[in-house]
Amino acid sequence: MPTCLGTVYNYSQYAKNIMEWFDISKFSTDIGFTLIIFFLGMGAATFGRMVELNPKRMACISTLLFFIGMILVFCSLQFHLLPLYYVGCSFMGCGTGIGYVSPIKQLLSNFADHKGLASGLAITGFGLGKFVAAPAIEYLLTAVSLPTMFLVLAGAFLLIMSLCSWLFKPNPAFISTVYTAIPISTLVKYTFLTKQYISVWLMFCINISCGLAIISQEKGLLTGLGFKEIATIMSLTAVFNILGRFGMSTASDHIGRKAAYHWVCSLGILASFMIFTGYSWLALLGILLVEFAYRRKFQLLA
Fold first, then answer.
1. What is the CATH number of the domain that holds 44?
2. How far apart are CA 29 and CA 15, in angstroms?
3. CA-closest candidate to residue 127, choices 230, 215, 258, 36
4. How far is residue 251 from each of residues 112, 204, 239, 243, 298, measured CA to CA in Å?
5. 278 DSSP assignment
6. Which of 66, 109, 113, 235 could bridge to 170 as Cys pair (CB 3.0-4.6 Å)?
7. Residues of the chain predicted below pLDDT 50
């Protein structure tokens, strides 16, 4: 499931095609990706409690929302309806957000003593999705029309995600019920309003924002390269994404969350400076480090 949802991070591969299709500015095009990420966060936050209670049901809802979003994007391109494109991106984002946390809850219930490993396994799928989809999307962009590409992907994702949702079997011993779940008022007072939570949330926000700023422009940074070169580099960034997600989350079980957190922050800062040095090989290495460090803090919070 995360492998399918992770394809939203391939946005930069077809952003230029969408811009030309609708004949709009780059800013207007990127609003779609902004909506995906915004509703990803809002979906995860809003429906997080429902995921705690029934991750399998929410995985099914995630599949439905993501499929609807893909179909709406297809219709918007087919009939040149820009507002519908934004609506479709919103549905995709909400489905991605719910589908982001559902597998984590599923695996945490089965690996209660190795939470870093469990969350790493779940989130690694997002990096794998980018790796698998990069060459496929590059091929579809040259083989079929842009609307058809979204229709093909929508059908494939519906089939795969439906099967994955059906296979969900969380451990009942680690699933909350309406009787055992911590009350929202208690969470707000003793967790959400603490200095520790607010500081972690701010760092998490900065990490995601800066990472997305670069990830959403990846293909634009590769202008002038051919099909094979772009697909190879995009897949390489996905490999580093996978290594970061799984490697740092697993390492945090041994070196501690705080130490792993410091490593992730340091690598992200170093990568940002490398990208703006003006040297192509350093910039490429910086992009790979961004992919390695991007959103690793989420797994470290488990």
1. 1.20.1250.20
2. 7
3. 215
4. 16, 19, 17, 11, 14
5. S
6. 109
7. 302
